[in-house]
Amino acid sequence: MEEDEIYSLDLVGMRVIVKDTGKLVGTVGQVFNFGAGDLLRVMIGATEDTIPQSTQNQDSTPSGEHVWVPFTEDIVPDIDMKSREMWITPPKGLLELNSRSDKRSKKERSAMEWKEKKKLQRRIIASKKILSEMDQGHVLEGLQSDDKVQKASLAEQIGSIDFQLFQHAMQSVTKPMGSLSKNGLVNSSSSRKNSMRIPYETLMNHQGKVKHVFSSELNEGLEILQKTKAAIILCTNDSDSLDSEFLILLNSFNKSMKVEENRGSLPFVIVCPAAHVEPVKNCLVENDYFGLETQKVWVLQEMELPVISMSSKLNSRKILLRSPWEILQKPAGPGAIFSLLSSNKILDTLNKMGVEYVQICSLSSKLTIGHPLLFGAVSSLGVDAGVNLWKTSKEEEDDFDLILSMNHVNKMCRDATKLRFSAQPEQHVHIEHVDGQWVTIQPEAANCHRLHAEVTSVLNSCSPDKVCVMEIVDQ
């Protein structure tokens, strides 16, 4: 199809059919134009006669059951304007992913929406009380606005703050404690008792039949993966390139998972910045989920916490505001993954699945992600945490690759105070409420702190003899 050959309104009302099976999906009800990423809203089981005229207006929102289909040449290769049909080749899981799973009646859905609204209201009331107790009443000033949209936006921001984690982070940076760094871990006497030096060549050639010194750990790790007793948590950040590193890592993981015929599909959690959530989901769909089972994949927005003013006293640290209705928030770091697992109920799901080990890593871990030797090493040593370190390349300080026992993950999720935060100086324009007026503050130097937790801080809550270091070396 040439560009501009087919217009959006020409597509509305067309029958959508799966090319491989000839099965009717439904009829195009709407077309949402996003440049090269146009989306078709396909009404399940509908025919052109049953598509209301109003759905041809993109501002309308049909309430019928529907699926989203990206309008790309790969997914929609054939269109017959005469028969008013388009034949699609959807990636595995696309139709199931986007279809509405809620089969309840309109009355039942309304009741649930009302219940959720009341739940949010209770959370906001509780949050307002906490803010007052923390001497952060200035955050609530915007709720007195006459603008309902602005008030609702601020209320939603307040209700979404994890105050248990926020209060702990505030106290943690006021009374900082030493945290074990990766380099310090390697040189500590306790870690050397549970240390392994794994040659790079052994790591890369683990699929061969030749026995080596790590054959026992490798076999134990293969059994863990085959029985799907492992899960992966991948953390990305704003600086990561989704077009390159992300694709390389997931393709590498997909290939490694195909090596063993009986290896099951592992639960896979991707944590990314808000702006990356939709692109990541689209990337998964376009690449057939890289061989993963769709129901075992979660894409989560990274947790953010309010930015606070600089002060040595806890009660003097104030939450900064961009406007009376917008709290200045920044990512809390990969260490906040444990709160995300709890709040999204993924922790319960992993426990029910029988997961025993969880790998938490950054995008730099493309050669070790899901590696059986590393899972087997942690299991055979009976430790709660294994740290993978590379000595064959330049490793950035922000890179991390940990394997934790599910017991330790549960412990971290139950008690947020085990996580250690640091206060990172930053410079931000913000507003302050002075004498009943909002005043813009333009700082000339660092004026605030971002609350940040490294995932490696979990090592501080482990017994020294329950931590192992796995160094990947040239020889």
Automatic annotation (TrEMBL):
GO terms for molecular function: UDP-N-acetylglucosamine diphosphorylase activity. GO terms for biological process: UDP-N-acetylglucosamine biosynthetic process. Residues 10-94 form the Ribosome maturation factor RimM PRC barrel domain. PANTHER family: 16S RRNA PROCESSING PROTEIN RIMM FAMILY (PTHR11952:SF10), UDP- GLUCOSE PYROPHOSPHORYLASE (PTHR11952). This is Ribosome maturation factor RimM PRC barrel domain-containing protein.
